[in-house]
What we know:
The complex is a heterodimer of chains A (273) and B (269). With 273 residues, chain A is an all-alpha fold. Helices cover 79% and strands 0% of the residues of chain A. Chain A has a single domain (56-268), classed as MetI-like fold (Orthogonal Bundle). In chain A, α3 packs across α9 (184-200). With 269 residues, chain B is mainly α. In chain B, α2 (11-31) crosses α14 and α4 (51-84) crosses α8 (138-163). Chain B is globular, with a radius of gyration of 23 Å. Chain B starts with a helix and ends in a 9-residue tail after the last helix. At the A-B interface, α1, α3, α4, α5 and α6 of A face α2, α4, α5, α6 and α8 of B.
Amino acid sequence: xxxxxxxxxxxxxxxxxxxxxxxxxxxxxxxxxxxxxxxxxxxxxxxxxxxxxxxxxxxxxxxxxxxxxxxxxxxxxxxxxxxxxxxxxxxxxxxxxxxxxxxxxxxxxxxxxxxxxxxxxxxxxxxxxxxxxxxxxxxxxxxxxxxxxxxxxxxxxxxxxxxxxxxxxxxxxxxxxxxxxxxxxxxxxxxxxxxxxxxxxxxxxxxxxxxxxxxxxxxxxxxxxxxxxxxxxxxxxxxxxxxxxxxxxxxxxxxxxxxxxxxxxxxxxxxxx
Amino acid sequence: xxxxxxxxxxxxxxxxxxxxxxxxxxxxxxxxxxxxxxxxxxxxxxxxxxxxxxxxxxxxxxxxxxxxxxxxxxxxxxxxxxxxxxxxxxxxxxxxxxxxxxxxxxxxxxxxxxxxxxxxxxxxxxxxxxxxxxxxxxxxxxxxxxxxxxxxxxxxxxxxxxxxxxxxxxxxxxxxxxxxxxxxxxxxxxxxxxxxxxxxxxxxxxxxxxxxxxxxxxxxxxxxxxxxxxxxxxxxxxxxxxxxxxxxxxxxxxxxxxxxxxxxxxxxx
Lengths: 273, 269
């Protein structure tokens, strides 16, 4: 039994090592003064300096953040409306149809989303660039935000709104003073999910971004295609730290607010973007 | 306060469905009927069923199949062992964490690791096997994809295993079942829903990935995803690209019907 335990621990350890090794490998070589990813010559922060001084890159980072924040805010608003719409539908069948339509963009591969949006924007005459990227990020963030908000809305007791109406609240008061505060945790996690979807997206953006406009993922791709450049390593170290901060922050926020954070964290495990 | 007033504020959501869910699918279908000269024809579909495309489709399926099988082989024991650990939630979080890191960066790391002078080749050198071309082969493509997809396979299997009633295992033991029989007759059938949603979360993206293919496999491996990207962004043959996309949508729908057909279609969510 003892022996068996050792083997199983070894297996798990191996899985974790394989999962994390590439990430730490990248980070390690970001401090390499030689220009390659295989011979560590000496410690340097040059590559970080390079990243910070690269104005083009800084602009792209700002672009990415603007798109992420703006698209998730708008997507969350649409998602609140969507969750209300789905909840309003009485017949079970119509509800299921609406839900499946909602989920189409979650399960479709990115290439298809990207290609079809490219056709859509070209036909509609939307200029490829900021507006097309923003619109598509809003579009693919809506469904996941709906899925985050809907359970909170369905858990809410209908007597709450009835009581508010009886006490003379207007429709608007019911929405802003009763419904929205109750579903706030869902709105938060919906916004957060939208944010990570947007920051993570590569394929869809790659299709709908025209010349001259770029987000971080697309930029990393085009640089990586040209081979190894250690400033990408430095950049990825920074992104890694930022991601960990974001996740830890979100984790503690939800631990404070709700009892079951893991369920919502795992919801990220949809189709990889 | 009529029901009409109710409906008005719902418009943005329905507009989103119409514009970004229904319209794109219809547009893809519509475009697949036009050739390069903008003439209405079925020639794209005829082209699709020529050996060139069929071979590509077949190899794309083969790679997706390999990726799914290897992910499953690695993920199932890992998920099982995870349910036995003490701080389950923490370990699970550590499995999830890498999925939050940009896909491109993880892929990029492998360009270094598998490179001609990378650590894998130095190990091979020390072992006396000598340097090999690892990057830009089918092997590196499968390896990196499995690496990317493992967490997505572990999660649903983990939650299915968590739902498993442990008394069933004791019962099987008491009735004299060996470890392997218990697994084959009790554990696996009861967690097959998790396996199914895991395979779904891996297989479809594996068919359509184009970024890993480009960066890691060079032009050695062509998947349906690379074909679509190529047609839309390089050769500008949107008709043919849409035809491949239509095929991919059909496959996706089929896989989902097959996988979700029975009641066990509980998502790992």
